[in-house]
Write a structure and sequence with these properties.
Elements: E1 2-11, H1 14-24, H2 29-37, H3 42-62, E2 69-87, E3 93-109, H4 110-150
Antiparallel strand pairs: 1-3, 2-3
Helix pairs in contact: 1-3, 2-3
Length: 151
Amino acid sequence: MEVRAIAKNIKGSVQKVKIPVDVVRGMSVDDALPILEYMPKKAAKDVYKVLFSARANAINNYNLNPDHLYIKEIRVDKARRLKRYKSGSRGRVKPISREFSTVSVSIVDILTEAENATVKEEKITKTHSKKEVVKKKSKVVTDKAKKTNKK
């Protein structure tokens, strides 16, 4: 079961918010939360809130075990940009842009992912065996066609 949480319009550019996101990518949720809590970056606090929200969604809405949760995907995207201007020397105007970003987190229960992976592998092996049978039959048909053309 994949659980998602999104935080929109976080103050800070994508480049600045990516720093704490790259640190926790692929970790378990219980390991990532303390790291984000004590990381000395302003964006780490916002990423912590999003991850904590996704964890709370998984526990309360889907009854998943919090010990088996890990971060499947976490990404940072551009959000809106405020364009401002500051007066400069000789009557000129200097542009200032205040960037915002969006953080998307999806977390997964390890046990349900493992069960789904085994089911998918079984389906793949069944479909491959059917395809091989079809390929063998088509080879036999083409071989017969070649023999009849040679005569």
